[in-house]
Amino acid sequence: MDFDYKALGLKAGIEIHQQLNTKEKLFCHSPTTVRETAEHNGEVKRYLRAATSEMGDVDRAAKEEQMNQRLFTYYTYDTTGLVEIDEEPPAPMNKDALDIVLTLAKMFEMTPLPEIHTMRKMIVDGSATSGFQRTALVALNGKIADACRIETVAVEEEACQRVEGTIFSVDRLGIPLIEITTAPCMHTPEEVHDVAQYIGMTLRSTGRVKRGLGTIRQDVNVSIKDGARVEIKGVQELDLIAEVVRREVQRQLSLLAIRDELIARKALVNGEVYDVTSVFAKTKSNVLKSAKVILGTVLHGFNGLVGMEIQPGRRLGSEMSDYAKKCGVGGLFHTDELPAYGVTEEEVHVLRETLGAEKDDAVIIVASTEQKCRCAMQMIVRRARMAFDGVPEETRKMLEGGSTAYMRPLPGAARMYPETDILPVAVTDEYFANIATPELLTKKVERYVSEYGFDEGLAHQMAYSEKLPLFERAVAEGIRPVFAARTILASLKELSRAGISAEAVPDDSVIAVMKAVEAGNAAKEAVIDILSACAKGSSVSDAIAKVAPAFSRDELEALVKNIVNDRVDFIKTRGKAALGPVMGVVMKEVRGRIDGKVVSEVLNDELGKLI
Asked: How many Cα atoms are found within 13 Å in the side-chain-facing hemisphere of 323?
């Protein structure tokens, strides 16, 4: 998929949503702890409806979400309260979260709003118990050096976590998010990746954002010449972001090609819907024979185009199916893919004949209850008519691999309305001036190389590690930087391999162990064993005494002398090559109770007497 993106007029922008690492949620005092769903201690059920805006309009995206009325279930926990289930007014905005957002605004050289007003953003897909998400615009007009413009940053509350179907978990609801929106200033998939990567690095540089899967999401806005702006939601993996853009360009080009072919064929969608249940009275298709009603419609001139691939694993028929599913049906069948799925060639022939479909026509059928089928057919006809315009403006969700599926129309201005339960927050010049900005991780890497003598790989690994604060504390307390970095990074990896969470070892214990090694009271080789003991509840002193009791130099010299005397012939035969094997025997005996450097020094002295 190599395209001339400049010739195609590709424009792309991104919205990055990142959870902030605060103790409390944005508008209540619940902790920002995400729980296992098995731990829930209650359930709340809600029907959600779209509210009318101040201008008397209902947002088109919310209206479509409401087409299929659903009862939503929400899991509650001992760490969640009444605000999450919309049974209590919100608390004032979390100042800690606002400070983090203002820090990032300052890092992007943005202008803060003098007064921050909270708004309600309508969401009736089940991801918010109230039917809306609270959001507040914080700053405008920022930049990324020589690359792109940041249009806005906002602070908003995280949505619920979907458990399955219409079941959601409220533990995540209300965690503070920053939303960073760029201008459509990227013109290749690689530029989108690079800008997203830079913003992600800047977010991490604060040391105040959450880490791990699901804590950051990228929404990508893509358009090409003669196409339309499409918003793709929920790209969680940075490495996939360029592929998502490439596949959206492919999709829009395919839809434009289908449009041109439909026009050339003088295709027609008259929207007539027929009951074809009797055609499948003896069908062997499990889907069709279990349905109460089967409805069909003819798309004149669409033959071969409904089944045309527009993205890997996706066809025009997939797009129509996405729209139909809004009405609660499982999908649709079309004649470009039949006979299949238990539908016979004879049934397809009778279907076409019954509906008067010509050779160049495609037939679409849906099966469910009559109400759902009628609704689904309206959506299918609507999407088929959109094909004559090429690319519809819409919001889509990312699928595995980078292809996308329809979610809802792009929202309009009616989606937002003021939050009357929260007072505005003033951002004075003095307040903003006192916001401190951290060192960028890229600059930190450069400093670690020049100041600490790190190689670039170690510097990058340490700067981007979740344990960076521990490293900087260790260096501040006098521990040698290279030793601190290698100990912290190696211990994380080794403890993980042993099935021990790094979080199980207190930072104070890690610092104390490194200081013990620096003072000669423990050997570097014993660090992992000592930390493992600490993870199980031992104090550092007890862990050292148990795992690696002190081994004096006199004891070491005596041990080395005995081991060497037992291997005199071997050492004389191998010469200097005997050092490695004999060193291994000594280290096995001392078991990390004394530094390997000291062991090597004593062993070399003893071997020197024989070689």
From this structure: 20
